[in-house]
Known about the structure:
There is one protein chain. The chain is of the alpha/beta class. The protein has a single domain, classed as TIM Barrel (Alpha-Beta Barrel), CATH 3.20.20.100. Helices cover 43% and strands 15% of the residues. It is built from 12 helices and 10 strands. The chain has helices at 19-27, 39-42, 44-52, 80-94, 107-110, 115-134, 149-153, 175-188, 204-209, 225-233, 249-258, 265-280; strands at residues 8-11, 32-34, 60-65, 67-68, 75-76, 100-104, 140-145, 164-168, 192-196, 241-245. Helix 4 (80-94) packs parallel to helix 6 (115-134) and helix 10 (225-233) packs across helix 11. The protein is globular, with a radius of gyration of 19 Å.
Amino acid sequence: MHRADPxxxxxxxxxxxxxxxxxAALDLGVTALDxxxxxxxxxxxxxxxxxxxxxLPKFTLSTKVGFFPGAGSAQHSLDPSRLRPxxxxxxxxxxxxxxxxxxxxxxxxxxxxSPADGHALLGSACTAMxxxxxxxxxxxxxxxxxxxxxxxxxxxxDLPSPDVLMIRAGFLVGIDLLDATTVLRTAWKVGETWGMSxxxxxxxxxxxxxxxxxxxxxPHRDLxxxxxxxxxxxxxxxxxxxAVGTDDPGHLAQLVQALGAKVDTFAVSQYLRSLHLHRQS
Length: 281
C-alpha cells in the first residue's frame, strides 16, 4: 500500500468504470477520483455506486455538471435551474455529497454570446455553484474547461472565484491556450489548478517519437517518455494535481512512480519562450 498522493487524480472519461482499477488506485495511493454526470452515457454516477459503493468513501470525489441528455445528443446548459438539480442528483446517486463539483466546459454555452451576455450567463452559473457549496451539496466548486479562451472573453474578474480550475495540460497544449489560462487564473483569483489530458488523448505514437526526458532533472531521465511527459505536464501550465484516465493498473503505477521525478523548470521556461518566439515569427 502506497502513501496517498493527491497530485494524481484517476479520471473516468474513457474508463469502463470497473472495480479493479479503483482498488488498484487505492493500493497505489491514488485517492482522488474525477468523473462527470455525462460520462459513460450519463450513467457514471449510478454505475460507480452500484459497483464500488464501499470504495467511494475512500476517495476524494469530484464530478462535473453542465451536459444533459437530449434528443440524439447531449445538450449543454449553464441555466441555474438545471445545474442545481444536477448537483442534487449527483449526491443522491453517489450516496454522498461530492467533494468538488465543476462546471463542465462552460465555454460550450459562451462561444456564441457577446461578452456582456456571456458574463451574465457565467455569473449566474457560478452563483448557483456557490449556493450549492454553501448549502452542503458539495464541499468546494470549480470549473472544468477544455478551452479557457471564451471564459476570458466573458470578463470573469468580478465573478465568484472558483476553488478549482481544471484545464488541459501538457506538451500538446498550444501557447495561445497556455497564455489564456495564465491570464484567466490571475483575473479570476482561482484557488487550485488541476491539469487534465496530459497525453492529449490517443497520441501513443507521438510519445514513442518525442522524447520529453530532457525536461526532467538529470537523476530522473531514466524514466519512460510517457512518464516524463506526465511529470512535465504539471508545469504546462503549473498545476497542483493532474487527472489521467486509464483502465490499466500498470500504467497507473508508472505514473505514480513518475511523481517522484523533479522537473527542470529552466528547460520548461526555455520551451515556453521558444513557443512565444515561434508565434511572433
